[in-house]
C-alpha cells in the first residue's frame, strides 16, 4: 500500500476537518458507569470528596453512590455486580467471596497510626461506674459488634489477646448496624465497644460513654479498611479500575491535608468539611461536624497503599476462628498489582 507524506498545509487542513467533525457532534467516548459502595462514616470522606469535586468525572467515570449500613452487605453487592467498588473493613463474608473467586482487595484505606488518635475503646457509663475502667477488665463483660466476622470482632480479639483474656470470656453482641451499637452503649445495654474517633469522641463529649483505651496501643499498624472490587473488574476492567484509584487517591490527599496533617488553609478545611457534612453527621450543626472531623480523623493511606502484613494477619485470624475456609490463600484475596504495598 502506497503512503503519501503530508505537507504542512495538508496536515493543517486535516486537523481542521477533524475539529469540524467533532464540533458537529460526533459522539465522545461515554463515561464509564460506576456504582460505589459507601457507608455514612467519616472514614468514607474521600468517596464524597471525589464525587463532589468532580474527580471521578475527570477520570471518565460516571459514579453513583450506593449506601450500606455494614461491611458484609457491601461485599455481597460487589460480588453480585450491584456495586463496582467498595471501601470497607475486611470481613468474613468478603474473604469467603474472594475464596469463591468473586472479589479482590485492591488497596488499603483507613489505617491506625501511632501518634494519631485512632479507634477509641469505650465503656458505657453504667459499666465504667461498676469498675470497667481499663480494657484489662473486659472479662465477663459484653462488647458490641456489628456482625460476627466484622472488623469490630477482630478488634476485640486483638484487645483480648493483648490483655491475656480468652475471647470466650467476653460476650459479643452482634447488633447489625453502627447506629444500633451507639444506642446500646449509650443506654448501658452493652458494656464496651471500639469505634473510630469521630464517633467515639462525640459520644464522650455528649456524656454517653467513657474512654478506657486506644486501639492503636494493641495494633498500631492495623489496616482498618480496604478497597475492593469484583474479580472481573480487577482482571478485565483495568483502565476503569486505575481511573477509580487515581480519582479516589486525589480525594485522599485533600482529606489528609485538611483533617490529619492539617496543612490545608482554613478556607480549604471549611470547603472539605462542608462536602463531608452533606453525607456524615448531617443532623449536627456544621461547626460541630467540622470539629469532629478535625479532632477525630484517622489517616487514609496515600495512593491507597495496602498494608499487606496487617491484612494477611486478618486473613489468618479469620481462618483460625473457622469463619472462612482454611484453603483461602492471600493470592485469592489480594490483587497487589494496582497500588504500593507497605
TrEMBL record:
PANTHER family: ALIPHATIC SULFONATES-BINDING PROTEIN-RELATED, TAURINE-BINDING PERIPLASMIC PROTEIN. It is found in: Periplasm. The lineage of its organism: Bacteria, Pseudomonadati, Pseudomonadota, Alphaproteobacteria, Hyphomicrobiales. It comes from Pseudaminobacter salicylatoxidans. InterPro entries: SsuA/THI5, TAT_signal. Belongs to the bacterial solute-binding protein SsuA/TauA family. Its main location: periplasm. GO terms for cellular component: periplasmic space. Residues 43-254 form the SsuA/THI5-like domain. It comes from the Bacteria. Keywords: Signal. SUPFAM superfamilies: Periplasmic binding protein-like II. GO terms for biological process: alkanesulfonate transmembrane transport. This is NitT/TauT family transport system substrate-binding protein.
Amino acid at each position: 500500500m502506497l503512503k503519501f507524506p503530508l505537507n504542512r498545509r495538508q496536515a493543517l487542513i486535516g486537523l481542521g476537518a477533524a475539529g469540524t467533525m467533532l464540533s458537529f457532534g460526533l459522539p465522545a467516548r461515554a463515561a464509564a458507569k460506576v456504582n460505589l459502595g459507601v457507608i455514612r462514616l467519616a472514614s468514607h470522606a474521600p468517596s464524597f470528596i471525589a464525587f463532589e469535586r468532580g474527580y471521578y468525572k475527570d477520570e471518565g467515570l460516571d459514579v453513583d453512590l450506593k449506601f450500606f449500613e455494614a461491611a458484609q452487605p457491601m461485599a455481597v453487592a460487589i460480588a453480585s455486580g450491584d456495586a463496582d467498588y467498595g471501601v470497607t473493613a475486611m470481613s468474613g463474608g468478603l474473604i469467603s467471596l474472594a475464596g469463591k473467586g468473586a472479589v479482590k482487595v485492591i488497596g488499603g484505606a483507613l489505617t491506625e497510626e501511632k501518634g494519631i488518635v485512632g479507634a477509641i475503646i469505650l465503656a458505657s457509663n453504667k459499666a465504667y461506674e461498676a469498675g470497667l475502667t481499663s480494657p484489662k477488665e473486659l472479662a465477663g463483660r459484653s462488647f458490641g459488634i456489628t456482625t460476627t466476622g466484622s472488623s469490630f470482632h477482630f478488634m476485640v480479639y486483638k484487645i483480648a489477646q493483648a490483655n491475656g483474656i480468652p475471647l470466650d470470656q467476653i460476650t459479643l453482641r452482634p447488633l447489625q448496624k453502627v447506629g444500633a451499637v451507639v444506642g446500646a452503649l449509650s443506654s448501658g445495654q452493652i458494656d464496651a465497644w471500639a469505634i473510630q474517633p469521630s464517633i467515639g469522641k462525640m459520644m464522650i463529649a455528649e456524656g454517653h460513654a467513657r474512654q478506657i483505651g486506644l486501639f492503636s496501643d494493641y495494633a498500631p499498624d492495623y489496616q482498618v479498611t480496604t478497597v475492593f472490587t469484583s474479580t472481573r473488574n480487577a482482571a478485565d476492567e483495568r483502565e476503569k479500575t486505575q481511573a477509580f484509584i487515581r480519582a479516589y487517591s486525589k480525594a485522599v490527599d485533600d482529606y489528609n491535608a485538611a483533617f490529619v496533617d492539617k496543612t490545608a488553609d482554613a478556607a480549604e478545611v471549611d470547603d472539605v468539611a462542608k462536602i463531608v457534612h452533606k453525607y456524615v453527621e448531617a443532623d449536627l450543626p456544621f461547626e460541630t461536624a467540622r470539629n469532629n472531623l478535625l479532632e477525630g480523623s484517622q489517616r487514609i493511606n496515600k495512593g491507597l497503599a495496602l498494608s499487606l502484613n496487617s491484612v494477611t494477619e486478618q486473613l489468618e485470624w479469620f481462618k483460625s476462628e473457622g469463619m472462612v475456609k482454611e484453603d483461602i490463600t492471600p493470592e485469592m484475596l489480594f490483587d497487589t498489582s494496582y497500588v504500593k504495598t507497605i
